[in-house]
Amino acid sequence: MKQRCRANRRFRLLAPWLLAAGVAVSTAAIAKRDGPESFPDRAVAGRARYLLEQAVAHEHGEGVGRDPVKAAALYCEAARLGDAEAMHSLGWMYANGRGLPRSDAYAGTLFAMAAFLGHAQAERMRRFTGDYVGDVPDCLQPPSEQQLEAGWSAESHIQALAAPRQSIARTVVKLARDYAISPRLALAIALTESGLNPVAVSPKNAMGVMQLIPATAARFNVRNPFDPVDNIKGGLAYLRWLLAYFRGDIALAAAGYNAGEGAVDRYRGVPPYPETKAYVARILAFVKRRQHPYDSSITEPSTVLPGLELVSQREVDS
User: Fold this and answer.
1) Domain final position from 103, 124, 140
2) Whole-structure pTM value
3) Is residue 193 within 8 Å of residue 210, measured between CB atoms?
4) Residues spanned by the domain of 305
5) What would you report as the CA-atom Rg of the chain, rounded to the nearest whole angstrom?
6) Which of 86, 116, 140 is the last residue of a domain?
7) Residue 248 shares a structural domain with residue 281
8) d(C-alpha 32, C-alpha 27), whole Å
9) Is 149 found in the same domain as 87?
10) Domain Transglycosylase SLT: where (predicted)?
11) Is the same domain home to 97 and 196?
């Protein structure tokens, strides 16, 4: 029982990274621990096994020239696909400084991941490197903003706006990076909320660029809701919180921004308000993706999140 509790605790620590890094990893992890793999899982596992074999060959010079840097890259790609042996092997390279700078922190992360998937040697190695402490090798980091926004240019979109709104849009894009929010998502919210009007006031007394009601402005320490920078920072802080609360689900975060997270919880999905449904559809059409990286340390997730995710997907697909 104690061993199972420790494993569950490690998974809670690793889960935010696993989700942000890619669905394949978390799906493979669940399949290996909890039951038979589905066809997509088998395909992912087969790709990971091929990459692992290539990595071993390059690490030891078996049939190819010995190349530890290439081996590490292949191990890393297999690890992203959920292969425990690849996680262990890459961790070993970091632990021993073989072809990579020595890092017990990176090694500890990889050994913890592999141990969660049942790799016995990785569990033993954790005694030498310590527990997962949050340090993740660069090759395993979530996709960069450039990758997430491939084919989309903030500046080209800004140039199409009316001149008085362009400076506001650039402020939104600049501050979004400070809050680890996709500029595309931040701009979608700001455009939908107020059309980038810093003095906008709604019938419900929502104010400024990001349309903050007084309670939200106070909650996120906005002193002057009609100051564009102060307002945008408050709106981004709230959006960052919503992304953490709904674990990166953009549809649910957008619905929460429009109707409040309480309404999303209460209806277990996007509330059936015509305004909110249209709002979410507009945001998703602009950002063209459903998931966003998030910081799990900001807040605990919604207590009804598993059901919310299923409902949210059905509503968007319908």
Assistant:
1) 140
2) 0.56
3) yes
4) 145-317
5) 22
6) 140
7) yes
8) 9
9) no
10) 174-269
11) no
CA nearest neighbour of 284 among 207, 192, 174: 192
In this predicted model, what pLDDT tens digit does every residue of 225-252 receive, in sequence order?
999 999 999 999 999 999 999 988 999 9
With helix as H, strand as E and coil as C, how does 49-84 read? HHHHHHHHHHHHCCCCCCCHHHHHHHHHHHHHCCCH
User: Do 84 and 228 fall into the same domain?
Assistant: no
8 and 25: one domain? yes
How many structural domains are present in the chain?
2
How many CB atoms sit inside 10 A of residue 22's CB? 18
Q: Give the tens place of pLDDT for each residue, 265-308.
A: 999 999 999 999 999 999 999 998 888 888 888 898 888 775 55
The answer on 162 and 83 residing in a single domain is no
Together in a domain, 100 and 194:
no
* Residue 133 near residue 105, CB atoms below 8 Å: yes
- Tell me the C-alpha distance between 101 and 176, whole Å: 32
**175: CATH:** 1.10.530.10
- Same domain? For 176 and 124 the reply is no
Report the C-alpha gap between 168 and 157 in whole angstroms.
13
